[in-house]
Design a protein that fits this description.
This protein is α/β, with parallel strands linked by helices. Among the domains are: 195-387 and 478-586, Rossmann fold (3-Layer(aba) Sandwich); 390-476, 434 Repressor (Amino-terminal Domain), CATH 1.10.260. It contains 19 helices and 18 strands. The strands form four sheets. Strands 7-10-11-13-12-14-15-16-17-18 form a ten-stranded mixed sheet, with helices on both faces. It has a four-stranded mixed sheet with strand order 2-1-5-6, with no helix packed on it. It has a two-stranded antiparallel ribbon with strand order 3-4. Helix 16 links the parallel strand 16 (488-493) and strand 17. It is globular, with a radius of gyration of 24 Å. The N and C termini lie far apart (54 Å).
């Protein structure tokens, strides 16, 4: 990696300007400012140029870069494109929770000479603002890592362009708003819930509004259902939650995938069963983004079921509840034949990323003891956060800091003893902001606490490592309490900025020492957000293999790769995934048939 010499802020040019500081490179040549179109798709990963990185030197949108850090800062997304040997830069300004179009000044420094250019920035739909991602460096145009990044960036830019071209042809249905779960009687837990067995179906219906892409354009499914079913929370109490069932055209009722969405919120109104419907609140856009992965599974002919695994009170981070709700959702799905047509002997697999992977991994750990009768072929998990204690330290003061107050509220709902502890340490000035996370979803939480010192909002910032109640709860929700007996495909970015890869490595080692079967892939060309997409095709290929009864070699394997996109299984799957997504977008019935 080239050494980067920083130019002092005092020497920076005036006006809203971003500096691209050039590292000394012997073969460096003068480069002009990029003036082409600006791409701003959420899937578009961020890649700096050779030796360049982005620095914000003035107030930008929703906040300021007081520390002079590089990469994304409040109100600004610096998006880099790896094509042309990583020599194109794009800077787009976004304000969290809004859509806007604005010109920006882009500067490039070489030998203390600045060039500036006005770039007209396309309007950025709210659905495109997914995660802030931090900048890293390109080493050289010939490096394998650079090649992988170039391939990824090029593929995503092409995908974005095709999606944009197809969008005008979409039939745009009137936006209708389903009732939020907190006001919908369907979600109410029956008073006699304790008399039902785990997985028992309590009531069912068709979703009030159509399942839709980004809450707007309906997905052409053969059928969809909502099932309320009985489950068990982390303390052993009976409760109920909701399962969404999606049936594609040409479905195989003997193939079921339980997909766990990364909800990451402490409001019941962020539940996937609500957020995936047309007309749902915009705050659920991150849930809606995962519809792209769900559609890829539906195109295999699998019936996809999605549990509201946080339960009716949105107990975010209560992982035992999440795992049990996932398993009980599978029980309910297999018992729903008269309603959904799913066969009771169906082959079942599980998939989830980030928080969805934690729910999936906990389901895998609990499976032998909580639901041993279920025959589960395997599970694909990615971006796990096995050690929440370390996640707290890693995400504080960063772009994912909004996860922390939401996690506190979710755990307080599940563990009453925690409420008094939080009340004792939380400073009065921040109580209202923390309480607000009970009524909003991840996007709003991310905006509210973006790069904030959340731990500094407590009188003792280190209380989560010393208070016995907190330490006990964090130990209880750590992954690795038991060993899965089903095959796992595990994928993780080595640069994950939410949860250190070492924590996942440690759980992998624990599993393998106890005889688990795990294929573990560590990806070097991604970060937490981008790995959700770059790792998905290979995960889908693995799931397809186990769903079709393919043998999985017992034992463990660990691979560190430049990018999962370079694997041959990805090469075979990815073109079909992109083509299906485009055809679905323009109205093709979702499923393994082209028309009908």
């Amino acid at each position: 990696m080239h050494e980067v010499h920083e130019r002092p802020l005092a020497d920076a040019p005036s006006s809203s300007t971003a500096l691209l500081n050039k590292a000394p490179v012997s073969s460096a040549r003068a480069m002009d400012i990029y003036t082409g179109p600006v791409y701003s798709l959420s899937l578009h990963a961020q890649f700096p140029m050779n030796g360049y990185r982005c620095r914000i030197v003035e107030r930008g949108g929703a906040g300021t870069n007081e520390t002079g850090k590089y990469g994304s800062v409040p109100g600004v997304c610096c998006r880099m494109h790896a094509a042309a040997a990583c020599e194109d830069a794009r800077l787009t300004r976004t304000t969290w929770g809004e859509s806007r179009s604005t010109p920006l000044l882009l500067s490039r420094q070489k030998k203390n000479i600045y060039k500036e250019v006005n770039i007209p920035v396309q309007e950025i739909p709210l659905a495109d603002i997914i995660y802030p991602v931090s900048a890293r460096f390109c080493t050289s145009s010939s490096s394998p890592t650079m090649l992988a990044k170039s391939l990824l960036s090029g593929a995503l830019v092409v995908f974005h362009a095709l999606m944009a071209a197809a969008a005008p042809a979409l039939p745009h249905s009137p936006r209708t708003a389903p009732i939020v779960p907190s006001q919908d009687p369907f979600y109410a837990v029956p008073a006699d819930i304790g008399s039902s067995q785990p997985g028992a179906i309590l009531r069912h219906r068709s979703p009030p509004a159509a399942i839709a892409v980004f809450g707007v354009d309906p997905v052409r499914l053969a059928a969809s259902y909502q099932l309320q079913y009985r489950t068990t929370d982390s303390l052993g109490n009976a409760t109920a939650t909701v399962l969404t069932v999606m049936v594609p055209h040409g479905a195989n009722p003997r193939r079921v995938l339980s997909y766990q969405v990364a909800e990451d919120a402490a409001s019941p109104d962020c539940a996937p069963s609500y957020g995936l419907q047309r007309g749902s609140a915009r705050g659920t856009v991150l849930t809606q983004a995962e519809m792209l992965l769900i559609e890829a599974a539906l195109e295999q002919g699998w019936v996809v079921v999605l549990p509201d695994y946080e339960g009716p009170q949105a107990m975010y981070l209560a992982w035992r509840l999440a795992g049990q709700a996932t398993l009980d959702g599978i029980r309910a799905a297999l018992a729903s034949t008269p309603v959904t047509g799913i066969q009771p002997d169906a082959t079942v697999a599980m998939w989830g990323y980030s928080a969805g992977s934690d729910a999936t991994a906990w389901a895998a750990e609990l499976h032998p003891t909580y639901a041993p009768e279920l025959a589960i072929a395997g599970a694909a998990i990615g971006g796990t956060t096995p050690n929440i204690t370390n996640v707290i330290a890693t995400t504080n003061r960063g772009p994912f800091a909004g996860l922390l107050p939401a996690g506190v509220q979710g755990l307080v709902r599940q563990y009453p003893a925690l409420a008094a502890v939080v009340d004792r340490y939380l400073r009065p000035a921040h109580r209202a902001a923390f309480a607000q996370t009970r009524r909003q979803c991840l996007l709003a939480d991310a905006s509210e606490f973006f790069y904030q010192d959340v731990l500094g909002m407590f009188t003792d910032p280190g209380f989560y490592r010393t208070d016995p109640v907190v330490v006990r709860i964090l130990d209880e929700i750590a992954l690795g309490q038991a060993v899965p007996r089903i095959p796992l495909y595990w994928y993780k970015s080595t640069h994950d900025e939410v949860s250190p890869v070492a924590d996942t490595d440690a759980v992998y080692d624990r599993y393998c020492a106890a005889g688990a079967t795990v294929e573990y892939v560590r990806d070097e060309a991604s970060e937490h957000a981008s790995a959700a997409w770059t790792g998905a095709p290979r995960a889908l290929a693995w799931l397809k293999h186990v769903m079709e009864g393919g043998a999985v070699r017992p034992g463990c394997s660990k691979e560190t790769t430049i990018s999962s996109l370079l694997d041959m299984s990805t090469v075979k799957v990815l073109p079909g995934v992109i083509l299906d997504a485009l055809l679905d977008l323009v109205g093709k019935p979702v499923g393994p048939i082209m028309f009908g």
